[in-house]
Design goal:
By secondary structure, the chain is of the alpha/beta class. It is 47% helix and 14% strand. The protein has four domains: 24-154 and 227-294, Vaccinia Virus protein VP39 (Rossmann fold), CATH 3.40.50; 156-219, no CATH class; 312-385, no CATH class; 388-453, no CATH class. The protein is built from 19 helices and eleven strands. The strands form three sheets. The chain has a seven-stranded mixed sheet. It has a two-stranded antiparallel ribbon with strand order 8-9. Strands 10-11 form a two-stranded antiparallel ribbon. Helix 5 (128-141) links the parallel strand 4 and strand 5. It binds S-adenosylmethionine (SAM). S-adenosylmethionine binds at residues 6, 8, 14, 17, 19, 51-53, 74-76, 79, 101-102, 120-122, 125-126, 130, 218.
């Protein structure tokens, strides 16, 4: 038997999901916040998705960034075929998915290197030898100054849950229609006996057990699946001359709004002693990191970061309708912005339209105005939007991609998400009632009104 899959489970395609954290527009803000410049997401760029699966996120981005060139690579032929079908249906001339392994990619560098790379659900699912191939790919395929996004399982969250993987690896499979039934039952039995002693593991399993077999196979049935510390990732990336550029999600650059004073004290001590990122993972209870890494991206002076944030266009928003415009971290904020302040910020955003105009209108000392406006953005009272010329250029492609998603979603009962030309990001719909309304069953006028505000309208 051939070993083309290098021990990776290839008998079922991974779930067809959309990842809102993958967004060149939002990455620009995140790296700037961390004091670095990055590639310009409003100028022509090249983007490569490593281990792209069905490439739904990449295809959505190709619609939202028609001036970018998008290439996905995966060694499983089935998702490659599925992805190219959707790209053709949506009429996107700037995206293509290729069948190829990381080993093959390492041996055939492109003539023109890439400005962005993404690898979601790959790094902590493949053996060390394949991570070494990925290192070679990054060294040869990425331009100086490029940014890489990696979404991977962290050791901090996963180490306590490792017995779940162990049980999945050892329990013999059930019949074809219930392959993981025996392993699911074994984990449930173990946690029924011991769950009180390990509430984190019990909670982790209670969300995981509802997942489809396709997801479970890649996540738990995979012999190489593991959780990693940041330094383990960095040790490999160093060989591609790459370094850490911070979380891809702006909110995750902040600690104080999420941690208690005592936790912050411990974090400050950990930072001083050199185990700061480990402490962050532990104190924030992270199971998954969605991080950015740079390949020699220059630093920005402090004033550059503030100037960039000031220019950011914002509109008033709130989180009453859950539609994935803000990643879930805002739910963990310890203290929401006081209602009167939130209302003031939202009022200013509807008048002025930029982060800087909101700051100025608050009539506060600069640092305080910056913090309040930032908190409003992080907690969902403001939504960052792209310049109008970019929105206009992206509208047609996004309309076509969204139409394809809706028709497929109606036919298959599965809607991974949609894309907004206004925010340059994908959206997931966590509420069942919203997914039903989008499938044409039931109504959700509040959802459709919100979608229209970010450039998603239906005939
Ligand atoms: C967990 S899935 C994630 C798919 C996609 N990035 C997403 O988030 O939906 C991991 C993907 O990596 C691909 N993969 C694993 N090892 C690979 C290799 N050595 N070369 C190319 N693709 C690989 C698998 O086929 C699979 O589609």
């Amino acid at each position: 038997m051939s070993d083309w899959n290098r021990g990776y489970p290839t008998d079922a395609v991974y779930v067809d999901a959309i990842q809102p954290a993958i967004s060149p527009w939002r990455w620009k803000q995140a790296v700037r916040f961390a004091g670095r410049d990055g590639p310009d997401p409003s100028a022509p760029f090249r983007f490569v998705d490593l281990g792209c699966g069905t490439a739904t996120t990449m295809t959505a981005l190709a619609a939202a960034y028609p001036w970018g060139q998008f290439d996905g690579y995966d060694f499983m032929p089935e998702p490659v075929h599925m992805a190219n079908e959707i790209i053709a249906e949506a009429g996107l001339g700037n995206a293509r998915v290729h069948e190829g392994s990381f080993g093959e990619m390492a041996a055939t560098p492109p003539e023109v290197p890439y400005d962005y790379a993404a690898g979601h659900g790959v790094w902590s699912w493949v053996p060390e030898a394949v991570r070494a191939e990925l290192q070679q790919v990054l060294a040869a395929w990425l331009a100086p100054g490029a940014l890489l996004y990696l979404g991977y399982n962290t050791a901090a969250g996963w180490s306590a849950s490792e017995p779940i993987r162990q049980i999945f690896r050892q329990t013999p499979p059930g019949p074809a229609h219930d392959r993981f039934g025996p392993a699911r039952a074994a984990v449930t039995a173990w946690l029924e006996r011991t769950g009180d002693r390990q509430p984190m593991v019990r909670n982790h399993w209670s969300t995981m057990k509802a997942s489809s077999d396709g997801f479970i196979m890649h996540e738990l049935g995979n012999p190489h699946g593991t959780g990693l510390w940041l330094e383990q990732v960095l040790a490999v990336l160093d060989g591609a001359k790459m370094g850490y550029a911070g979380p891809s999600v702006l909110a995750e650059h902040l600690d104080a709004p999420f941690l208690t004073e005592e936790d912050m004290e411990l974090l400050r001590r950990a930072v001083a002693e050199g185990w700061g990122e480990t402490a962050r993972d532990l104190l924030h209870g992270r199971y998954f990191r969605k991080d950015l890494y740079h390949r020699g991206t220059p630093g920005l002076p402090g004033s550059g970061m503030v100037a960039a944030m000031r220019d950011l266009r914002v509109i008033p928003w709130d989180m009453e309708v859950r539609m994935g415009t803000h990643l879930g971290v805002y739910r963990r904020l310890r203290q929401p912005l006081p209602e009167d302040l939130a209302a003031r910020v939202m009022g200013l955003a509807s008048e002025g339209g930029t982060f800087g105009a909101v700051m100025d209108g608050l009539n506060m000392e600069t640092l305080q105005a910056f913090q309040v406006t930032l908190m409003a953005l992080v907690s969902g009272h403001l939504l960052d939007v792209r310049p109008e010329d970019q929105v206009a250029a992206a509208q047609d492609g996004c309309d076509r991609f969204n139409a394809v998603m809706l028709v497929r979603g109606r036919d298959s009962g599965h809607l991974p998400g949609l894309v907004s030309p206004v925010t340059g990001t994908c959206l997931q719909f966590p509420d069942e009632a919203h997914r039903e309304a989008l499938a044409g069953r039931g109504s959700a006028p509040e959802l459709f009104e919100r979608l229209a505000r970010i450039g998603i309208a239906f005939a």
